[in-house]
Amino acid sequence: MGQALQRAAQWTSAKGGSGGKLEFTKLNEDLLNQVMNWVEGFGAKYPEESKLIFKSALTWKTSLRPENLTGGYQEKGEDMVSTQTSSKDNTPMLTLKKVASNDYSVSVMSLEFCENVLRMAGNQKLMEVRGCLEANRDPGAKMLGDRFATVEGDDNSIYRFIEEITKEIEQSAKQEGQEGQSDVEEKKLQLKLQLQINRLDQQLLQQSIQQITSEVRLTPATVDGEVNILQQLSGYDEDKNCLESCEYWGDGYVFQNGCRAQPWRQLHGDICYIQVKPHDTDVVYVTANTSGYYCNSGVDNSKPGELDYTKQGDSYRELVTLLKDKSPKFAEMIDKQEFALRAKEKDDALMIQKEAKRDGDDDEYSRERTQDHKVHKETTKDKDMKQKKTQKKKKLEPSLKWKALGMEEYKETDKEKKVVKKKQVPSRMKTRTPVDAEESFSESSSESEEEEEAVERRSETNADLPSEYWQIQKLVKYLKGGNQTATIIALCSMRDFNLAQETCQLAIRDVGGLEVLINLLDTDEIKCKIGSLKILKEISRNIQIRRAIADLGGLQTMVKILRDQDKDLKCLAAETIANVAKFRRARRTVRQHGGIKKLVGLLDCAPLTGQMTPELERDVQVARCGALALWSCSKSKKNKEAMRKAGAIPLLARLLKSTHEDMLIPVVGTLQECASEPSYRLAIRTEGMIEDLVKNLKSADPELQMHCASAIFKCAEEKETRDLVRQYGGLDPLVALLQQSDNKELLAAATGAIWKCAISTENVQRFQDLKAIDLLVGLLHDQPEEVLVNVVGALGELAKETPNRQQIRKAGGISPLVNLLTGTNQALLVNVTKAVGQCAEEQDNMVIIDRLDGVRLLWSLLKNQNPDVQASAAWAICPCIENAKDAGEMVRSFVGGLELIVSLLKSEHKEVLASVCAAIANIAKDEENLAVITDHGVVPMLARLTNTTDDKLRRHLAEAIARCCNWGNNRVAFGREGAVAPLVRYLKSSDENVHRSTARALFQLSKHPENCITMHEAGVVQPLMKMVGSEDEDLQEAAAGCIGNIRRLALANEKARYS
Fold first, then answer.
1. 3-class DSSP state for residue 150?
2. % of the chain residues with pLDDT over 90
């Protein structure tokens, strides 16, 4: 498995690239699971090989403790050893060694004891496999000796070993020695074990190759898109254009597959070659390959007109990233995003010049000046200069981003602005707007922006300003002109003011104090740096100030300070970064200047479980400040990925065991922010962090409780996590938190965690014992929507059990649930309809729902534009129809209700279609309603859906067709619409429910002779014959009935032929 670990596994480290840790990725998880399964089943398949003693022990840090070792183990000092020893040197086959106060390492000498370790580890077995492979990068060499170590190139060790065994067999045959024979047997076992390891290695590599090759690679269309954008950003003006030129290299011929490279180079994966001229460097020749972009050696001097295709440097996934590494000027302009973009259409060019700096904020407007003029085919520097001088009439408009989104278009005259109309831009036009070029360089993260553009608040008269404003301005002047001593005194005096007051903050900014404070960070005087950072830390809580700090390049300087030896400086810099990185552009700046890796490095402090010394307390403070900064930065998806690659996960797991609440809050806050990513959820589960999160739910700090509950809320998407929460006793404190009705944020997090945990039926039983339903029903009144969404979601999951549905009714929960159906929050409507639908499974509940006009409200939600709401409402209607006393009359009483539900069969969403088909199957039980929906054209609409491959839709569609066959000539109409043959294909599905509903539909359709002929031709008889032997009586009866109808038709034909 050494080859797989070296070539396929993805490794990372916490500091400076010094290796050792496996990344928490899907690929690595699959590799670890396969290795774990291999070890667990090895002893049963190969008992002799599993007992083979290793050449040297496999040793790693373990989560096992002495109390976990039972049967066949004895104490040896502070260590535990196995009673079974090696037959060669009496070494214990397993040793559990204490390496620190609460840390142990385990050493094993055979695969049999590796299997024992996994068995004793229980839920931590995957962590044990991870620890073993991280500590033993080439386990084959440890097990079988250095001769079987993983090597580059051809590995002939097995063949040489076979030759050696053959020679020894020949020699032992001549000597007939018992000792030589035992050596041969041992080597045979070694050979068998190595062959099994090689087979595992091949399986791991094959699995990795399949996963890696499924990833998206570069295509000609992708390359053309990036080059076109860069061409629009090119020009001779260094102040406005990112590049001087960007052109394809070659004769310009484009092959049918979109490639521009010669066919013999396309065999190597080359797509095209790009010639880029930045403003500050020589021409860069780039090869666009399916594996990425990389620089080639440029024009071959020995062969004029040809390129030297030799690769120079690394490959990049984006052309922009490559150019940013090659050209500092390009990188600076892209980061600041102050450039002009040309969008040509026919003979006209639209010049757009940015006036405002773009923060990457989706809610900000950027003011643009546009000017239309004729552009000749040959562009020169002189014409670029003329374009600057011809800006006469300016037309102010919102950013083109809003036009691309179809927002309201505004016209501005000299006197007033007024809304003209709403304008939808076709999707084919959206790809041509300049906004797309702009967005391609912006932060592509999914985080929501906390801040909108701060509104400038300036006093109109100086008389309104307090005296502190002028006093601070005087101190700033001393900062600018004083010597070192005067500077320190001025900084100390400035700190005496209330810097939390906005007037004081803006006074520092207005007189140019921010520039001075940031410049002081570049000095060599520690006291000046500390004083400056203390002030910046306080005033950076102001939205306007933190944006000004980012504009002045303060973040870059603070990131450099994170490498300083002075721990106080690192703490202050990290805390200030935590305040400033509240908006997207600041977070991007921290990442692009290497701040994420440095902040992760701050987390690496000594274990926090021992006695605290002054030095250790300072280290803890540094780690806390680093966690605060990472918490702010973790709102960006790219930053989360950078944190993971820098090795933040194991460090956060270690800090999570701290007893200091001021440390735990930023650590848990970072984890709950990152838990939106699957890789982090996997890591939180496998690193044993769920136990710590559950433990901290019992903390006395409401903020810590809120973040822990929020982390569990996000992580409980996976069943394994939900089980761990229950096993560690996390359900009890979550229910206890429901009594904190005053703290809305804590309540939202706790109810969300209960909602997700209630998905598992094992947890539902515990919630019943804790009487969670009564508490949840009590929260249906006077709560904000973010709490109601989670409360209703939890009730919907709990209501899947019959006793819980009764308890919701007894607690008075039906009425408030029905009342919530009139809301507008889409997520709340989805959960409410599910909860009402579950409650309607109980007839007593249905009586209350009907009395409160709940079914009418559900039906009205079918008009909602959100397909999730439509589907959820349709699913809820099904049990309402089944359990209502006079369901047929109730449905007919809804004016236009039947026409509405039939019209939803035109939807493009499969969940909507499946739910509507299920509702129609219930509606069609009433003959009058069936007649009405038939008149509304339900038959051809259902027939058009029969070619689907979705089993959920197939099941309910077949049920609806079966029900609809009971009216008039619907059977004939289904045959005429071509619905019969596709139904026969449903019998090949692996879903038993699909078979049952399909057999019913075919039985009903087979009552018409033409349909019988169509079924027989489609090959329906053979699968139906198998289903006659099914244990499902309904399926048996329907299959037999269909075959009987086909057989009766065949006999009638035979009789008619011979009579």
1. coil
2. 39
343, containing H or E segment: strand 341-345
Contact 340, 237 (CB under 8 A): yes
What are the pLDDT digits (tens) for 6-23?
Answer: 667 777 654 444 456 787
Q: Please identify, among 184, 214, 244, the residue that sits at the C-terminal boundary of a domain.
A: 214
Helical (H) or strand (E) element with 369: strand 368-374
Tens digit of pLDDT for each residue in 777-791? 999 988 899 999 999
Same domain, 86 and 167: yes
CA distance 717 to 731: 15
Rounded Cα–Cα distance for residues 644 and 284 (Å): 33
Is the Cα dihedral 1023, 1028, 1033, 1038 positive or negative? Answer: positive
**Cα end-to-end span (Å), the chain:** 76
* Contact in structure between 557 and 608 (CB atoms under 8 Å): no
Cβ atoms < 10 Å from Cβ of 180: 16
> Which pairs count as long-range contacts for 990-993, CB under 8 Å and 24+ apart, including other chains?
990/951, 991/951, 991/954, 991/955, 992/1032, 992/1035, 993/955
CB 677 within 8 A of CB 671: no
Distance CA 701, CA 798 (A): 29
The residues that bridge with 374 in the sheet, in sequence order, are 348
Sequence-distant (6+) residues with CB within 8 A of 32 are 22, 126, 129, 130, 133
- Domain containing 73 equals 1-214
Query: 207 and 251 in one domain?
Result: no
177 in the same domain as 64: yes
User: What are the structure tokens assigned to 110, written together?
Assistant: 């055979």
d(CA 60, CA 136): 8
Q: Average pLDDT of 363-369?
A: 35
The label of the residue with tokens 């839709």 reads: 953
The residue ranking higher by pLDDT, 462 or 972, is: 972
Span 138-161, pLDDT tens digits: 888 888 887 677 655 556 666 666
Q: Is residue 402 part of a domain?
A: yes
Instruction: Give alpha helix (H) positions in 103-177.
Output: 111-121, 125-135, 139-144, 157-175
Q: In whole angstroms, what is the distance from residue 167 CA to residue 182 CA?
A: 14
Residue 757 to residue 41: CA distance in whole angstroms:
32
Burial 516-542 (b: 16+ CB within 10 A, else e): bbbbbbeeeeeebbbbbbbbbbbbbeb
* Boundary (domain end) residue, out of 185, 214, 243: 214
